[in-house]
Design goal:
alpha+beta
Length: 152
């Protein structure tokens, strides 16, 4: 299975370390816990990246990264099992609890989760501390540019 991540060119070498999520936390992990975020499609990855950029940041130097995952090591979080307003939480309390438990228990390399932007689509949280994480590989790196109209 190939999943996607859009990364600034200068951070590609560390894209799979989970250090950014460890420092800042994310929707599915608290700070202090390493995690790597990716999306099922390149278009969803672009949308997920876009919501975190200020408009001038859209003009950055990006790469689209295709990440090959070991297929048998995915744990799935079903949309129907999440609290009603999970995607609207500003502190990410309910989703961080799910992700932190998953990371602590080392259940799998990959946690499949709904996108908060488009809940019927999937994002993936990768666990760099899982013993099988060595099977995760970047297999595609290609230049990526956001349409300049998005910067206005």
């Amino acid at each position: 299975m190939t999943v996607w991540r859009i990364e600034k060119r200068q951070y590609v070498e560390t894209a799979l370390t989970g250090e950014g999520a460890r420092v800042y936390g994310g929707r599915w992990n608290s700070s202090g816990r390493r995690a790597v975020y990716a999306s099922a499609t390149l278009s969803l990855s672009a949308l997920e990246k876009l919501v975190h950029l200020d408009r001038p940041g859209v003009r950055g130097n990006f790469l689209a990264i295709g990440i090959q995952l070991p297929a048998r090591t995915v744990h799935d979080v079903e949309l129907e099992r999440l609290p009603r307003n999970w995607s609207k939480e500003l502190d990410f309390a309910s989703t961080r609890r799910i992700g932190d438990d998953w990371l602590a228990e080392n259940r799998s390399v990959v946690l499949a989760v709904p996108s908060a932007l488009i809940p019927r689509e999937r994002n993936f949280v990768l666990n760099p501390d899982h013993p099988d994480y060595g099977q995760v590989r970047i297999t595609i790196q290609e230049p990526f540019a956001f349409d300049p109209r998005l910067a206005s």
